[in-house]
From TrEMBL, chain A:
Family: Belongs to the ABC transporter superfamily.
Sequence ranges assigned to domain ABC transporter in this UniProt record: 37-256
SMART domains per UniProt: AAA
PROSITE patterns assigned: ABC_TRANSPORTER_2
Pfam families named in the record: ABC_tran, Wzt_C
Keywords recorded for this protein, A-Z: ATP-binding, Nucleotide-binding, Transport
Family annotation (InterPro entries): AAA+_ATPase (IPR003593), ABC_transporter-like_ATP-bd (IPR003439), ABC_transpr_TagH-like (IPR015860), Bact_Polysacc_Export_ATP-bd (IPR050683), P-loop_NTPase (IPR027417), Wzt_C (IPR029439)
Single GO MF annotation: ATP hydrolysis activity
Protein name as catalogued: ABC transporter ATP-binding protein
Cellular component aspect of the GO annotation: membrane
Origin: domain of life: Bacteria
The keyword Transport is annotated on this UniProt entry: yes
UniProtKB/TrEMBL annotation, chain B:
Residues covered by the ABC transmembrane type-2 domain: 69-290
Lineage: Bacteria, Pseudomonadati, Candidatus Auribacterota, Candidatus Auribacteria, Candidatus Auribacterales
Protein name: Transport permease protein
Location in the cell: Cell inner membrane; Cell membrane
The keyword Cell membrane is annotated on this UniProt entry: yes
Source organism of the structure: Candidatus Auribacter fodinae
Cellular component per GO, a single term: plasma membrane
Single GO MF annotation: ABC-type transporter activity
Membrane-crossing segments per the record: 68-91, 103-131, 143-171, 177-204, 211-230, 269-290
Length: 418, 298
């Protein structure tokens, strides 16, 4: 293809698991290489594994490609192969155009030397000519925003300053193909914003991108193509949205690391299970009978998109007419409250269902629990509490404002009691 | 401040710059025909020359910035070594008779020249391992690391020239006026040998780290085997070994030139210089072949 800038053709890469094997095979390979003895490379020797196996894809000029996958899926290895740091054991990679890589910012910085000196050294390492660096020096310092400390040794820099300086240098390298490995995660919000803006500007100028990130919003915001890796194999190559949902399926699957501390299970079909409650907290006069979350069609569901409407149905058994205040919040896997609301509810005697409608649900990608707490109207006497789980939100992100988790609007949930 | 245009259109349209990565290493699509490898090696070196200088400045300034005594260190060790041998000479442990020049001058020149070899070799051997994370994270001509480290050996030696000058003044002798220039120029083969071995060892050390610990002992042993601090007795067992030791010729020919302006070792020196060149070519070829297989093992 004339306009493809990166062609990966049947590429495999193997690594040794232990240092002992690495030393042994390293010596063997070098000795064999020195005497021109060919070695069978398509077989694994003892203690080796395939980090990547038979990868094929093509990237065209001006595309922004997101490489996604779980830790150890082979994304970074792929990036290093594209950068020419590793050579493939099998297959072939062709690259057309000047390549710039941000595998780790600040790699090659010398801690004893000043920021200014390191700009020159790192610039040279990245292939810039001295005259070019001198010409761009002010712009680099300005982009990094560290004028004040440019003559201090970089070992006194904060990690944010380190990253800013590193990114500023690479940003001035004028690559035609830019490889980025999860480096934008560091740095403060303002600098990340600046980097993303800069990347967008590069993209408009026709620079080709390959990005490795675990932040699906970054991928969603910038990528025009997504590649999903799993255990060293390429599982999907196509639209970023589809690749992200492959990744999310993988992440939110049964082996997702959610703290399961089931206390008592509700077996009603479609209900959320009671995952956790504080036994000593509250009088437990009022009981949560059933908690379920339904989609726009009114059917119980465990999976939503960020902008779907969802209705939380809480069935409560109350021994008397009680004025209560209910706190309802969504807690994510990090046990962080993502969204919460409280509502004043007058309970009748007996069993009743409180419906709380969220339109939209406004949560980003992840797995959530519903936390419910029921108090009296003066908040002095807690009646009941519980965490109910789980449901997940897929294909997340607020598309309008990548890089933030802030909902673009806020609507008070509608509450009805039946 | 806006960044100047991030790329140039003419650079984008340059289709000849396609690079192909395979197991054998990187090459461009146009690289075919005879001597491809040699041409690639030379091009790599030319591309890397600015980086070599930059890394050299980095090593130099960080080395001397971090130590209080700085340059004084370069003097202390040779003075102690030479002093020890002077004591041994006086005690009759070694025979330093029959020298036309004062022993201290003779010994200081010897250790300084030998230091070109040891300092260069030590620096080169550690160069790839020390670059560690950089090797794995940035693609740049690795050869720059070894070349810039070998230059550190020259600086170390150059600093000790002050010591040599001081020795001449203290002992009220003078170097041979023409020989001194030839003497220093004739150190070039020693540097070539150092670089050749350094290119080889730097990659081997990346896989077998033990090498870095072995080098200091090995060079110390070599120093005793090579007549650096005492003249050799040709009839002794050591003398026979010495006849086949290129370091003997590469160090003693330049020293003879500096001190006397003539040397009996000319033939041996020329042969050793040729060997040095062969070692450099072999070491460089090995480095070029092996460097692509090293990043994943550092």
């Amino acid at each position: 293809m004339a306009d493809s800038v990166i062609t990966v053709d049947g590429v495999s890469k193997k690594f040794s698991k232990s240092v002992r094997h690495m030393m042994l095979y390293g010596t063997l390979d070098l000795t064999a290489g020195s005497f021109g003895i060919p070695l069978a490379r398509n077989r694994l020797r003892r203690g080796e594994f395939w980090a990547l196996r038979d990868i094929n894809f093509e990237i065209k000029r001006g595309e922004a490609v997101g490489l996604i996958g779980a830790n150890g899926a082979g994304k970074s290895t792929m990036l290093k192969l594209l950068n020419g740091i590793y050579m493939p054991d099998l297959g072939k990679i062709s690259i057309r155009g000047r390549i710039g890589a941000l595998i780790e910012v600040g790699a090659g910085f010398h801690p004893m030397l000043s920021g200014r000196e390191n700009i020159y050294i790192n610039g040279s390492i990245l292939g810039m000519k001295t005259a070019e660096i001198t010409r761009q020096l002010d712009s680099i310092i300005d982009f990094a925003g560290i004028e004040e400390f440019i003559d201090s040794p970089v070992r006194h820099y904060s990690s944010g300053m380190y990253v800013r300086l590193g990114f500023a240098i690479i940003a001035h390298c004028r690559p035609e193909i830019l490889l980025i490995d999860e480096v934008l995660a560091v740095g403060d919000a303002r600098f990340r914003r600046k980097c993303l803006d800069h990347l967008k500007q590069l993209k408009e100028n026709g620079v080709t991108f390959v990005i490795v990130s675990h932040n699906m919003q970054t991928i969603d915001g910038i990528a025009t193509k997504g590649i999903f890796f799993d255990h060293g194999s390429l599982r999907y190559c196509g639209t970023p949205g589809e690749a992200i949902s492959h990744y999310e399926m993988k992440m939110l699957g049964n082996d997702a690391p959610f703290p399961e501390t089931l206390i008592e299970g509700s077996t009603k079909p479609g209900s959320l299970r009671l995952v956790k409650y504080f036994k000593d907290y509250g009088t437990h006069d009022i009981r949560f009978e059933d908690v379920r979350i339904t989609n726009a069609q009114g059917e119980p569901s465990e999976s939503f998109a960020s902008f779907d409407a969802a209705t939380l149905k809480v069935t409560v058994a109350s021994p008397s007419e009680t004025k209560t205040r209910m706190y309802c919040s969504f807690i994510n896997e990090d046990m962080t409250v993502c969204m919460g609301a409280y509502m004043d509810i007058s309970l009748k005697t007996g069993i009743q269902t409180i419906k709380i409608k969220f339109d939209p649900i406004q949560l980003t990608t992840g797995r959530y629990m519903v936390s419910l707490r029921l108090y009296d109207e003066y908040l002095t006497n807690p009646y009941a509490n519980g965490h109910f789980g789980y449901f997940s939100v897929m294909k997340g992100g607020c598309v309008e404002t990548p890089g933030t988790n802030t909902p673009y609007c806020w609507r008070t949930p509608e509450v009805t009691i039946a | 401040m806006p960044i100047s245009p991030p790329f140039r259109m003419e650079a984008m349209n340059n289709q000849s710059s396609e690079i192909i990565y395979t197991y054998a290493g990187p090459r461009t699509a146009s690289d075919t025909g005879p001597f491809v490898k040699t041409r690639l090696m030379i091009r790599e070196f030319i591309d890397a020359r600015e980086l070599i200088i930059r890394l050299f400045i980095r090593n130099f300034s960080s080395k001397y910035r971090q130590s209080v005594l700085g340059i004084v260190w370069a003097f202390i060790i040779p003075i102690i070594t030479v002093g020890m041998f002077m004591v041994m000479g006086n005690a009759g442990v070694i025979n330093v008779q029959g020298l036309k020049a004062p022993y201290a001058v003779y010994a200081i020149i010897g250790t300084t020249f030998f230091n070109l070899f040891t300092a260069g070799l030590t620096a080169c051997t550690g160069s790839i391992v020390q670059a560690g994370s950089m090797i794995v994270k940035i693609n740049f001509p690795r050869i720059a690391l070894v070349f810039s480290s070998s230059l550190m050996g020259i600086v170390d030696t150059a600093v000790r020239l002050i010591l040599i000058a001081a020795a001449f003044i203290v002992y009220r002798t003078a170097p041979h006026p023409v020989g001194v220039l030839i003497g220093f120029l004739s150190l070039i083969p020693l540097f070539i040998l150092t670089l050749g071995l350094g290119l080889f060892f730097s990659l081997v050390a990346a896989i077998l780290r033990d090498l870095i610990n072995i080098i200091p002992f090995a060079t110390m042993g070599l120093m005793l085997l090579t007549p650096v601090l005492y003249p050799i007795d040709n009839s002794s067992a050591l003398g026979v070994v010495t006849q086949y030791n290129p370091l003997h010729y590469l160090i003693n020919f330049p020293r003879d030139m500096v001190l006397y302006g003539s040397s009996e070792l000319t033939t041996g020196y020329i042969v050793s210089a040729i060997i040095s060149c062969i070692v450099l070519i072999a070491g460089w070829q090995f480095f070029y072949m092996a460097q692509t297989k090293i990043a994943e093992r550092v």
